[in-house]
Structure formats: structure tokens, C-alpha cells
Amino acid sequence: MKDLNRINNPHGDDKVNDACSIFGMMDTSGRRFGGGDIIKAMTLMHDRGNGLGAGFAVYGLYPNFPQHYAFHIMYLSREAQQEVESFLQDQFCIDLAEEVPTQPTPAIVDPPLIRRYFALAHPHRLEGRREDDYVVSQVMRINTQMDGAFVFSSGKDMGVFKGVGYPEDVAQFYRLETDYQGYLWTGHSRFPTNTPGWWGGAHPFSILDWTVIHNGEISSYGINRRYLEMYGYHCTMHTDTEVIAYAVDLLIRQHELPLEVVADILAPPLWSEIDRQGPEKKEFYTTLRQVYGSLLLNGPFTIVVAHRGEMIGLTDRIRLRPLTAATRGDMLYLSSEESAIRLVSPKLDRAWIPMGGEPIVGRLKASLPTKAAKAAVKESISH
Amino acid sequence: MTKKLAKGRGDRQVKIDALGLPYRELNALLREAVAGGAESIELTNVYGQRYIGTDLMKPVRLDIHGTPGNDLGAFMEGPRITVHGNGQDGIANTMNEGEIIVHGHAGDILAMSARGGRVFVRDDVGYRAAIHMKEYGEKKPLVVVGGTAQDFLGEYMAGGVLVVLGLTLKEGERHRASYIGTGMHGGVIFLRGAVEKHQLGKEVGVAEPDEADRKLLRTLVGQYAEYFDRDAEEILKKDFIKLFPLYLRPYGRLYVY
What we know:
The complex is a heterodimer of chains A (about 375) and B (about 260).
Chain A: H1 4-8, E1 21-27, H2 36-44, E2 54-59, E3 69-75, H3 78-91, E4 92-99, E5 113-121, H4 123-126, H5 131-145, E6 149-153, E7 158-163, H6 167-173, H7 176-179, E8 184-189, E9 205-207, E10 210-216, H8 221-229, H9 242-254, H10 259-266, H11 271-275, H12 279-292, E11 301-307, E12 310-315, E13 324-328, E14 331-335, H13 338-344, E15 350-352, E16 360-363, H14 371-382
Antiparallel strand pairs in A: 1-8, 1-14, 2-7, 2-8, 3-5, 3-6, 4-5, 9-10, 10-11, 11-12, 12-16, 13-14, 13-15
Helix pairs in contact in A: 2-13, 8-9
Chain B: E1 13-17, H1 23-35, E2 40-47, E3 61-67, E4 77-84, E5 97-102, E6 118-121, E7 142-145, E8 158-164, E9 186-192, E10 204-207, H2 211-228, H3 232-237, E11 240-245
Parallel strand pairs in B: 1-2, 2-3, 3-4, 4-5, 5-6, 6-7, 7-8, 8-9
Antiparallel strand pairs in B: 9-11, 10-11
């Protein structure tokens, strides 16, 4: 009989040194670049994952369709595809539907069918709802009610590419090095701990143009999930990280809270620290914990959250997972290990290890038209 | 792998280009070089390879250019490692003997469970430096951090000497670490620069260094200044506080009913 142990563990190690690995890089000048560097960085951290999930998010990805929602959908069967496509055609105006280009990669076994759709919402379907809310509810409907189909990317001018494999394999499978450019890339390699490694369970997790990659585990998953369900978010990916994507969508897009406040909700100061604050801050932090206590993330985590024009790195309050940040010119890097940053950018202006619970934020300098800016323009026109 | 073999094998001085070498192969090359009698090894293009120096068991000198991976010098027994750059997490994990000098910053859990040897870091260190560092008889690890540290400095510390100089702090800025010495039950921490009472764990007492402490500090700060080209007298002018464990078994009654 074959000695499987020698195959699975050729070096005879009795120690598994896996963890997840995360990497983010952003050109704050808005310059778009290819996937070569992030693939190199993720490949260097190969040993942190175990081949059961990897993925990438890219922003500034579809300049030819900047206003369309780009749905990336994986199908486990043709029936699922038919069901979802007739649903999409009914709910949206689809301007392009195609297979996501992939290439045969030896290490990628049994991939699902992966297609993408560039879609606009039919105005008459909105029925007074905001377009984003409408899209969220349609994504939730597909993911909860249609068997064998998962929407894993649904934002504008961005996309998620993920699957089961090591990051270098997943990147090769999706042809990320040659086919795409963006101003912001995040990458993740998975070492699944509590939940199975499957295509939908790979990071990044995403809703609209929010993406989250995560190293750690969310022991507050149950309470976070139940809270988010009250707002129409349904967890379908069997992985704790999913709640973070929905939490940031709720807090930033729907409740319009600034990012720094969101960090104080997800990784709040400890009560002992709140007690030492002046009356105003004390009331502020106490209020946040009373209102949003159910979104506090308990357990060890390092996350990189991204959306249009912005990348945020955050660790849990007592920093039980690693994060190194670095800058070089207009570039901001976030990584599980500094060596991965140095590999793609040996000379850095600054490399540092942020304090736990303190967000590191990269923003595009030349601002993309944001909601606030658009609102300001509207106001200036209406007056 | 043969094409990457250390140049001048069997020589006392060896150079290894580590670019693209997986950590197991790199560490195998190091073992081979040391077995061949190398006394000094220069490593270039090191990017994230783990466990460098772990199993060399000789007082060989390693010069590392690049960013060595996690657990640099873990369980180390003898080598003297100089890192010309920043280090990552787990440097000197359970080190027994030898020396690690980092010309930059270091990540989390520096000198975790170390039981001997010396560590000098020029700049800041991350969370939980010297966590559960210990000592026994003649074995006593010495750790000097030139900058400041993040939270849980000296957590559960059981022995050895930890010095934090605060040289990266601005004038009037205090250390930011909280939970300093939480659960500490052995060894000693010397802090240069201000901390508030609430930053300290409940298990540590505060004292002024006595004459023997000052002598030890002169030696360690002198060594730090020599390695990183600083002025020891200038560093020693500022006051140090000494943190010591109040209890031998701080949680002795925690789970006793």
C-alpha cells in the first residue's frame, strides 16, 4: 500500500507551519499595473497556505464597463447556469455575458464553470430602492435560493478571482499576470481551520465592490451573522470571513460611517482603555459598543478590506495575527510578512508594524467620483 | 540544488545567494557549509526563509542581507547572526546559546521562551517581546531593544534580562505598550523613558535600578552602542525604571477552588 504520509509530508515534518497569507498593494496615484508583483509576493508566502483556497481582488479592472455591475458567478451545473441566467436577464440589462478566461493548470482540479456578466439594473425594477440595495438583494437571492450557483463578485470596475489551489496556481488559472491591470490588488492564500476548503470559501469575500481578505478566525461569527441577517445579509459561503464583507457594506455604504469609526466598531478599544478616556470620547466609545456591539469581531484577525479607491489594513486589538505596512512613492503595501514586500519593492520609504486595532488606510489621491462628491455636485447644481 | 551550492565549499568563509531557495534547501546548505568547516557565512538575497541558524550547533558567524523569515535562530545553539535589515516574527524563539543582532526592527514574539544567548535589536519590536523568556543557573538570556515595544512586553516572563531603550520615541513621548509584564514571575525588565502606571501589568513592581543593575545596564547599553554606533553615555544619562515580578506564582490560585 502506498505510504500516503510520505506524499503528504515529504520532509517528515511533525510541525505544520501554515497560517493564511495576505497581501495588498495599491498605487494611490491611480496608475494601473499588472498582477506580476502580487503573484510573486503571494508565491513567496506559499508555505503559509495549504492549497485549499486562494484568490485575488483587482480594482480599476474593467475600464470599458465602469458603470456596470460585474457579476462573477461560479456554477456547479448547467441547470444552475440556466436558472441564474434567465433570472439575471429578467432583473438586469446584460450588456456582455461571457466565460471568465481560464487556462488549464495542472494543480487546479475540477473547477466549476465560471462566467461573468456586465449588467445594469432595470430602472423600473428598482421600485424606489437604491440600485446598490437592489443588487445586494438579488445577489443574496441567487446565493440562498438557487442551488449550485454562487455570485462571488458583484462590484463595479472591480473583480474577484478565486478558487481551490495555491495562489500561484489560481493566478495562472485565471491568467491574472497577463490579462488584467488595476490600481489596487489584494491576494490571499488559505489555511482552512474551521470550515471546508471549497471554491466559494476561498478569499476574498465580496459584496458590491467591497472585498475582504482575512487571516485568523472570527469567534463572534454567530452573533455577527445573526445581526447582519436582520439587515438582509445571508451568509452562504460557510466561512467566518463573509460576515466582515457584509459588516463593512452595512456600516460604510448603508450607515455612512467613516472608516475610522468602523475600525472602532470592529476592533474597539478595551473597556479598561475606554474608562481612561475623557468624558466625550468615553461616551462615544460606549455608544458605539452599545449600538454596534453585535458587530464587534472577537478572535484573532488581520484583514485587508478594499473598495473603490481605498485599501484598509486592520488587526485585532491585541494583534494575534501579523501585519506589516510599507510605502514606496505612491505605493502602499500590506502583508503578512515584510519579506514579501521587499521581494517586489526592495527599497522602501518606510516599513512598519502597526499597533493592533489601528487601521492603515490607502486612498487614491486623484479622487474618483465618490458618492459624497457626486452629492456635492448635485447640491451645487440644484442651488 | 547543486547549482546553488555555497561557493568555496570547505572554506572558512562562504557566500550563499539565497534568491529563490526554499527554506529547507537553504538550511541544508548552511548545515553543509558548517560541516565543511565554515566559520563565517554571508547570505545575500534572503527573502522570508524560515529557521535560519536553527540547527547549526557551532559558533559560526552569519551575515544576512535581506529579510529573513519567521523563527530566525529558533532553538539556536551557538551561531552569531547579524541581520542587515529588518527581522520578522519569532526571532530567537527558544534560543539556547548564541547572539542575534538586528540592524532594523523586529516583529512579534521576539525571544519567545528564550533560555540563553543575547539579542540586540536596533529599532522597535512588535507584540509580546520576551514572552515567557526564562533562565536557569548560568543560562540567562539578555535582550536589548533600542526602540520601543508594542503591547504585552515581557508577558509571562520567567527569567532573563529585557532592556528597552526607547530611542525611537520623540522628546516627551512615552512608550505606548500596555500590559507590560502581565503575568511576569521571573527575570527583570529595564525601561528607559516614561510609562504610566496603567500600562503595567498587575504582577510587576517598579523600582529604581540599584548599583548592580546599573553595572549590568552599562555593559548592555555599551554593547548596544558599539553594535549600532550610538553614544552609550548619552543613552545612560536618562533614567531607567526597573520592573520586577511581585509574585513567584501570580496565578497560583486562579484555578484552585
